[in-house]
Design a protein that fits this description.
Length: 159
């Protein structure tokens, strides 16, 4: 699973000019699911998103997580994050999870974020969306749940 997390002061999903979802203060999460992803990847990423400390304290230091700032999540499924462009110029999406499975994973991921006591708004899976993101900072973090790229941390570890 791949995520681009942008700290934002505002985020909105529009379809045909109509606002479908919007947030103020939080993360816009662009989420890509690979064919190797499992529920364990969702657990890891939801925990990481809830605990990553990229929100400023009174001294301007990145010490707070999203819950400490009453931030919200705007989650958008984006299969293009799974593109492979190592060869040629046309992206290959062979590593992307098939659409029906990816939709189920996206729904489950949003549930797991809510289980972390986060307010989650969603884009519309499979739709052409206009995403408005007012990046705050800018602070943009990329996350990958690939076991090779992460160190597993216990869920109950104090961060």
């Amino acid at each position: 699973m791949k995520i681009v997390a942008q700290r934002c002061s505002y985020g909105a999903v529009l379809i045909d000019g109509q606002i479908i979802s919007e947030i103020t203060n939080g993360f816009c999460l662009l989420c890509g699911f690979t064919s190797q992803d499992t529920e364990a990847d969702l657990d890891y990423m939801a925990h990481k998103i809830a605990h990553i400390r990229v929100f400023s304290d009174r001294n301007g230091k990145l010490n707070y997580d999203i819950r400490q700032t009453s931030g919200q999540i705007l989650a958008v499924s984006q299969f293009t994050l799974c593109a492979d462009i190592k060869k040629g110029y046309r992206p290959s999406f062979t590593e992307a999870m098939p659409m029906v499975e990816a939709q189920n994973m996206f729904t489950l991921f949003c549930l797991k974020l809510r289980e972390q006591h986060l307010t989650v708004k969603e884009g519309v899976f499979g739709s052409h969306m206009d995403i408005h993101i007012h990046n705050d900072g800018p602070v943009t973090i990329t996350l990958d749940s690939s076991p090779v790229l992460r160190t597993v941390q216990p869920i109950d570890k104090k961060e």
